[in-house]
Write a structure and sequence with these properties.
514 residues, single chain, alpha+beta, 8-stranded mixed barrel
């Protein structure tokens, strides 16, 4: 398991009414006020909270009439025990459970429940709120190990006030489910966090035997497989039998390899990496997912490792689709920004390197420039003049001595398809439609120049706008602002939860080693 990565904090009961740590709300978080229910016992507790609360917690309790958050029917509700369980497992989040005083919280809860004393119940409510706000804040803190480029202030991690953390919990459809399911964190984080223990149970206690790399191992062998058997936890036999084939397949399936049951070079290399390597990869991917918002924030996630896109709102995953992302030599970066508008009937501004490496050699070979619906322009200004392709020194372009602006006109063969979704950045990265459907059928889809090609741009457009997105006419570059900007997060997840275990994906970009 990952060791605690946070600095220690003072025990809560030494400073029970001091403000908790703060961390900023995710973009798009909707905060509402709870509706009070008439209850004499809770009214009494609210009066005690009013007289006792101070610091940042007052900013939460005051607007709700000092109504208790954790007390129900004269005792602590089930969300209290859910918080204690989460604190006790906080080492899975790289945190120290002792920093949140679970033992003293439990003692206080038991005493309050047993006595029913309003003052003690109020103290318990405040203590639980303080612990919860601090835990959520710490859990959301980004790691310095993961570098992400934030394009807009709305998506930058910021300190969030305890009142925002507590309000988000108070308006969740089920408070206890919100705590149990870690509803403030990304589903990618929560699922991987929970799957990590199952993966460790499945693979981490096996003998760390080195499997020889100079011996060819094949199913059906009567001898020579003893090290492989020991490494995978089987008996001390030597045969490559059906039991070993099944075990190799299971290992391959969980470690991002083709599950064919053959212990080839890639499988042996994976076995010889040892358990620590895979635990470190899981820990790194937990840090990557820690940077993503929870499902109550309306947002889009693009994962370049699996070449998939998801979109979320109101606590649910609304959809998922395949995408084509950047190749190893033209990687899709880890970045986050705000999708602000769609461009219908877009031009494709061909990157300089593609003009040099691909387009210019084709022109020198006799291809038609205009039949491919390209046009060359004099510069990048709004008043750029079209150039006659016959007057262009294509040899100078191909040699890199001349940079030429080229764009492809809108149409059926335009590389952008019918629409692109823009989150302005200086790298020219965006989400866009594509006429090239063949690449979407491939299991590995790292082929683009960095942009994200969408399997179903029309469906995503309907989600963005709440209605079908169509151009008024054939006019190029029709810009349509989104009703509300939507955060988009481009990430890279080489370990993800799968069937109560962890599925590893190939490190196509080589970022895990970095």
């Amino acid at each position: 398991m990952v060791r605690a990565r946070r600095h220690g904090r003072a025990p809560f009961f030494r400073t029970i009414l001091l403000p908790a740590l703060m961390l900023a709300a995710w973009p798009g978080q909707v905060i509402a006020q709870p509706v009070a229910v008439s209850d004499a016992a809770r009214t009494s507790v609210a009066a005690e909270i009013r007289s006792a609360v101070g610091g940042k917690l007052r900013d939460f309790y005051g607007p709700r009439g000092y109504w208790p958050l954790w007390i129900e029917k004269g005792r602590v509700g089930p969300q209290g025990n859910a918080l204690i369980a989460l604190i006790e497992s906080a080492d899975a989040d790289g945190l120290k459970p002792r920093d949140y005083d679970a033992r003293q919280l439990k003692s206080l809860m038991q005493e309050a429940d047993a006595s029913g004393d309003s003052k003690l119940l109020a103290r318990t409510d405040l203590a639980l709120s303080k612990a919860f706000a601090a835990l959520v804040s710490d859990m959301r803190k980004p790691s310095r190990r993961v570098k992400v480029r934030y394009l807009d202030p709305e998506v930058e991690p910021k300190d969030e006030e305890p009142r925002e953390i507590l309000r988000a919990a108070a308006v969740a459809p089920s408070f206890v489910d919100y705590v149990q399911n870690i509803g403030w964190m990304s589903p990618f984080y929560v699922k991987l966090r929970n799957a990590r223990a199952a993966f460790a149970k499945r693979w981490s206690d096996l003998p760390q035997v080195v499997v020889p790399t100079d011996v060819k191992l094949r199913p059906g062998m009567k001898s020579g497989a003893a090290p492989l058997r020991r490494r995978l936890g089987l008996d001390s036999g030597t045969a490559y039998d059906k039991a070993l084939v099944a075990r190799v397949k299971a290992f391959q399936g969980d470690h991002g390899l083709k599950p064919d049951g053959v212990a080839g070079a890639a499988t042996i290399e994976a076995l010889n990496r040892g358990d620590d390597y895979y635990d470190r990869v899981i820990a790194l991917n937990l840090e990557r997912t820690r940077l993503l918002p929870g499902p109550y924030v309306r947002h889009v996630v693009v994962d370049a490792a699996s070449a998939r896109l998801w979109y979320f709102s109101k606590g649910e995953q609304d959809g998922m689709m395949k995408v084509v992302v950047g190749a190893r030599e033209s990687q899709t970066p880890m970045m986050a920004g705000m999708i602000r508008y769609a461009t219908l009937n877009p031009y494709w501004n061909v990157p300089y390197d593609l003009v040099e490496r691909k387009l210019a050699p084709k022109m020198l070979a006799g291809d038609s420039f205009t039949k491919k619906h390209y046009e060359a322009l004099s510069d990048w200004s709004a008043n750029a003049q079209r150039l006659d392709p016959g007057t262009i020194d294509w040899k100078a372009v191909a040699d890199g001595r001349t940079e030429l602006r080229v764009r492809q006109l809108p149409g059926g063969d335009n590389a952008m398809g019918k629409v692109k979704f823009m989150f302005p950045n200086d790298l020219g990265i965006y989400l866009h439609d594509t006429p090239s459907r063949d690449l979407l059928a491939k299991p590995a889809r790292q082929f683009s120049n960095g942009c994200v090609r969408l399997e179903d741009a029309e469906r995503l457009g309907r989600w963005f706008f709440g209605k079908p997105l169509k151009a008024d006419d054939d006019k190029p570059e029709q810009h349509e602002p989104l009703p509300q900007p939507v955060p988009v997060y481009l990430t890279y997840l080489t370990a993800a939860a799968s069937d109560n275990s962890v599925q590893f994906l190939p490190d196509v970009y080589g970022r895990d080693a970095m």
